[in-house]
Amino acid sequence: MSLWTSAEAAAATGGQARGDWACEGVSIDTRTLQKGDLFVALKDARDGHEFVAQALEKGAGAALVSHVPDGVAEDAPLLIVDDVLRGLEALGAAARARTLAKVVAVTGSVGKTSTKEMLLAILGNQGRAHASVASYNNHWGVPLTLARMPQDTEFAIIEIGMNHPGEIAPLAKLARPDVAMITTVAAAHLEAFENVAQIAVEKASVFEGLEPGGAAVINADIEHAAILMAKAVDLRLRDVEFGEHAHHYKLSAVKVQADTTVVQAEIEETPLLFKLATPGRHFAMNGLGALAAAEAMGADRALAVQSLGRWSPYQGRGMRERILLDPADPRLTLELIDDSYNANPTSMAAALDVLAASAVTHDIGRVSKGRRIAFLGDMKELGTDAVALHAGLAHLAATQELDKVHCIGPLMRSLHDLLPEHQRGDWTESAEEMLSGLRARLDPGDVVLAKGSLSMKLGLIVDAIRKMGHPVATS
Prior knowledge:
One of its GO terms (molecular function) is UDP-N-acetylmuramoyl-tripeptide-D-alanyl-D-alanine ligase activity. It is found in: Cytoplasm. Its EC number is 6.3.2.10. Belongs to the MurCDEF family. MurF subfamily. ATP binds at residues 108-114. The protein has helices at residues 6-13, 52-57, 84-97, 112-124, 141-147, 168-175, 196-204, 225-234, 281-296, 301-310, 345-357, 386-391, 397-400, 413-418, 431-434, 459-466; strands at residues 4-5, 16-18, 22-23, 25-27, 37-40, 62-65, 78-80, 102-107, 129-131, 155-159, 179-182, 215-219, 238-243, 249-256, 261-267, 270-276, 319-324, 333-339, 372-377, 404-408, 424-428, 447-451, 470-473. It is α/β, with parallel strands linked by helices and 475 residues long. Strand 20 (404-408), helix 14 (413-418) and strand 21 form a beta-alpha-beta unit. It is built from 16 helices and 23 strands. The longest helix has 16 residues, at 281-296. Helix 4 (112-124) packs across helix 10, helix 7 packs parallel to helix 8 (225-234) and helix 9 (281-296) packs antiparallel against helix 10. The strands form 4 sheets. It has a 9-stranded mixed β-sheet, with helices on both faces. The two termini are 37 Å apart.
């Protein structure tokens, strides 16, 4: 069964279909376009209409456009609409309307993508599941995810993000979730908000899109949980709390080990023990919240716990891997924690906790003592408190457990200046500059963390470390 026929897409958007065509997928990027996709000519840094001819040459089944682009034949397979983004939104709304899928929306200042992937792991083992790709959670990412949803989907997981006030509610109303989960509320995107309480109000607006009788899954441990709970009450929703202070999914204890996290919880006073194949207290919280959301979607608890046990973070989101530095000696490895995709003070503190708790290996390198080493890049969009929030990292207990901290970016200079001499590594303006002499800073037995906002390009550090040797799966 095709995802979209010309007749269906025209009916959904009110557009004019040129030709009789059928598409198997939806794409916004010719670099990842698959044969048979509907290419959507969005305007971003470049106008997508410039790439329509290329998309059709690569095998696109049709293109969603606002006019016939230059170099494209009048009889090419097209869907012509007044506005391409509005057309994509209409496709998303139609895809949501024609499916019987249960839909969960996930938002929060930290942990959205990891929690979405946990839910995909759980629900994908209990039915036909569909989810946002990567972090496609904005004004085009949400409608794109919906437009890609097959009609026979049983569970859909939609990640919803924001940078400014007023962005979440329209996306939630488009997704029409049966369950909406807020992972946490923290200092992120403070340039656009006066304080964290305002961020909580914006996150709570995800509940405005819930279907009648929907469930609001709320982290009960955050400072502004009352704002989220009040919104659920105002909308007469069923609230489901998770966390140490929760009434429903109560976190009793977390034991973080070298490669696993053991979680003890009580669900409506019934004890539950589950494991995650990755270390981190924040993953324990996300896992418990994902379990609450999945059960609200009708998932089986026992199967869900098994799925959580097999889940692990992926690239840029806390993924761990062992790098073999010398193929002739399998002992000569270091461990890399790739958390390079993004950062704010809450997620940075969580990542530093993981690094501080990591087990190093002694007596295998030129430095006899295995070390915990961090490469930290600027955290962006923190507003007027940015310098203080970076400097504050020096006072975290986890930071004080580290052996060496290398800092990247002008804001991280404030942390670098506060570090004691034995911990103070190098400071550079950019990740590119830090690459010089990188190998000399590392040794077998070390555990290395790379974390910063995406624009700081900590991924360059990660890639360079990988290229020092041969990655070996750790889970």
